[in-house]
Amino acid sequence: MRILFFSTYYYPYISGLTTYTKKLFNELAKNNDITILTFPHKEHLTNVSGNPRITYLPYSLKLSKGFISPQSIIYFLKEVLKNDLVILNIPNFEGVFLALIAKIFGKKIVSIFHCQVFLNSNLINKIINFFLNLSVFIQLYLSNNIVAYTKDYFSSLKLFKFFHKKTVYCLPPVASFKPSSIKSAALKKMKGKDLWVGYAGRIASEKGLEYLISAIKKMKNTTLVFAGPYGKKVVGEEDYYNKIKIILKETKIKHLFLDNLFGGELSAFYRTIDVLVLPSINKTEAFGMVQAEAMLQETPVIASNLPGVRVPIRLTQMGILVTPKSSDEINVAIKKIVRSGKQFINKTSIANAKKIFDIKQFYRIYNDLLLNDKST
């Protein structure tokens, strides 16, 4: 099958949206011809030949985290005519034009719905958010099928009542790698006897990191360890990163920024920390794959009790859910996990997590949906 995929961003940009789709298309490319259309998140990115084939679209203007690109319509038309199936990575604004063209030419459309975006409430962001959500609604309306992470998250949105009949639920792909012995040794040496509270992911405003910092500011012998992109590497979030740096300096909390970690090095990070915390504050966070990655490395998790985000802990019982923006609850949860870790991590819970987050199940769902052409 010839598959055309569009996403505003794609790997090597790092986020849940790009990690998910990179794993998906590396698998689908084994038996299908994949074309990826995306925008360059930084200068000097060049098109990639082979399979998947990646084409970086030209644009006239960058607006917030999106692009204004009348030129992309020509690329959309050209590629729709050559491909059998169109997959849209949502949320995005620009894909509405691709969806319209695909519908005109009778191509099947599948939308991967990661989350709904909730921008900060100043006037400009409200306008951007309105048109973004309008575009998302149109794309979902034109889609034959929608793939969402969990019903828990999707049913919490107003979109659910319009599209639930054509939505398939599929937990995101979680890969487990053997920890790097070299990285593990280096991290353990750095850790010493400290308690390491870990965070994995982008440094972004919806993550609520200020509440995590507040939760541990009075804890002795504790280091806050960040793994993931930050600053200029995260589009539109440099101001938030600078805010976090100021808070860390003011509170004098010991901390480390490890930047992006992959494969065995990321597994070593999860194995070294005592607990992973995901203190998300709104529905822009829909799941948090890092939770499942940590669980597969036998590390307990603390996460906000938000739709979708709470699912990994509910399924595995390998952590504690806390009220969003509650530093006090995060503090109590950390202390509880440190005191009684075996309550959350044991042979039964680990085996259960491996079964729940089996990546083969993810691939099976997509093969059934896309390759057998089951559409509504």
Compose a concise summary of this entry.
The chain contains 15 helices and 15 strands. The protein has 376 residues and is α/β, with parallel strands linked by helices.
What report would you give on this structure?
The structure is a single chain. With 376 residues, this protein is an alpha/beta fold. The protein folds into two domains: 2-174 and 358-371, Glycogen Phosphorylase B (Rossmann fold, 3-Layer(aba) Sandwich); 181-356, Glycogen Phosphorylase B (Rossmann fold, 3-Layer(aba) Sandwich), CATH 3.40.50. It contains 15 helices and 15 strands. The strands form three sheets. The chain has a seven-stranded parallel β-sheet with strand order 3-2-1-6-7-8-9, with helices on both faces. α8 packs across α13.
Share in helix: 40-55%
Sketch the topology as an H/E string, one letter per element. Answer: EHEEEEHEHEHEHHEHEHEHEHEHEHEHHH
Distance between the termini: 19 Å
CATH superfamily of the largest domain: Glycogen Phosphorylase B
Task: State Rg.
Answer: 21 Å
Number of domains: 2
List how many beta strands DSSP finds: 15
Shape verdict: globular
Q: Write down the CATH topology of the largest domain.
A: Rossmann fold
By helix and strand content, what is the structural category? alpha/beta
Strand content: 15-25%
User: Which residues form runs of ≥5 with pLDDT under 50?
Assistant: none
Q: Give me the side-by-side strand order of the main sheet.
A: 3-2-1-6-7-8-9
Please give the count of helices.
15
For this structure, what is the CATH class of the largest domain? Alpha Beta
Q: What's the story with the biggest beta sheet?
A: 7 strands, parallel
